[in-house]
Amino acid sequence: MGYLDLTLHPERYHGVGKQPPFFEGWYFKLIDPTENHRYAVIPGIFLNADPSKSHAFIQVLDGLRGRSHYYQFPVEAFQAAADRFALHIGENFFSLTEMRLNLQGGAVSLHGALRFEGGSGWRVTLDSPGIMGWFGWLPFLECNHGVCSFDHVIHGALSIDGQHVPFEGGRGYIEKDWGKAFPSAWIWMQTNHFDQPQVCLTASIATVPFIRRTFGGFIIGFWQAGTLYRFATYTGAKLEKLEVTDDHVLWVVRNRRYRLEMLARRAEGGLLHEPTRTEMHKRVEETLRASVEVCLAPLRGGTPIFSGTGRNAGLEVQGDLQKLLIQ
């Protein structure tokens, strides 16, 4: 597949022919209907100039209990289709509509099959190929991001540490990252568990190296019943406030029409591996126990378009956050 085709299909594997350092990973969030089982499953690949450090992986996070495990595979176990997102890592399979797992013997063991129904991702157009906007056309970015499914229904069940867990009627979310390394600092939050169905918030702010300088760039999508409200550095949206304490993250942005206020309540989580240019470090804490209060309102006042609290929220706060305030 050529560069044009890949850019217009952010969900596909982008690593064919890439020289190291390079990583790519897909993030599957799985919440059962009781909301007592909350998992993130992250398949991916890490390529290093030292072939002995290159490998495929599947990370598993038990977001409720804070347990995690990093399953490592040889590079040869990673097999990705060229014309769609269809990925095999050993006996495990991942696509936008299906997941089959056989992960045994780790701190978290998963076995079984799930199907995903009704998902839709961030709209892709020629002038804005996904969540990255026109930045998505730039081949030299350190890290790229994609949203593959804001919200979908889960069918099936998993055996988790030998216990049968039905996921039938649960909710899921899929996103991904690829590039040379994660940013030096970032905040990420996501939830699609509001009292109102078909609502999803995905938001990140990170340091972005760009033409001999670094700036704090953000991309936020608030998706409500098929309507996407975008707030991003590349759209001209402005950061009004970013406050981080041990208890919460208060983040307020605005564009020409709307103001979006997000208040995330922090919670303990588990450790995930982060890709750097030289290795995968185990030093990123992520929780699926956070909550995010969201209020979307017209900029010039009036009745809020949406006000509610998202449960089972994913939240990461990492690095020197002062760098994010340099706009």
Outline of the structure:
The protein is mainly beta and 327 residues long. It is 2% helix and 58% strand.
How would you characterize this protein structure?
This protein has 327 residues and is mainly beta. It has one domain. It has one helix and 22 strands. The chain has one helix at 3-7; strands at 22-31, 38-47, 55-62, 67-73, 78-80, 86-89, 92-95, 98-103, 110-117, 143-160, 163-166, 170-179, 185-191, 199-210, 213-224, 227-232, 238-244, 248-254, 258-265, 270-275, 280-298, 306-319. The strands form two sheets. Strands 1, 2, 3, 4, 5, 6, 7, 8, 9, 10, 11 and 12 form a twelve-stranded antiparallel sheet that branches. Strands 13, 14, 15, 16, 17, 18, 19, 20, 21 and 22 form a ten-stranded antiparallel sheet that branches. It is globular and about 55 Å long. It starts with a helix and ends in an 8-residue tail after the last strand. The relative contact order is 0.16. The model has no long low-confidence stretch (mean pLDDT 95).
> What's the total count of β strands?
22
Low-confidence stretches: none
Order of helices and strands: HEEEEEEEEEEEEEEEEEEEEEE
Report the span from N to C terminus. Answer: 36 Å
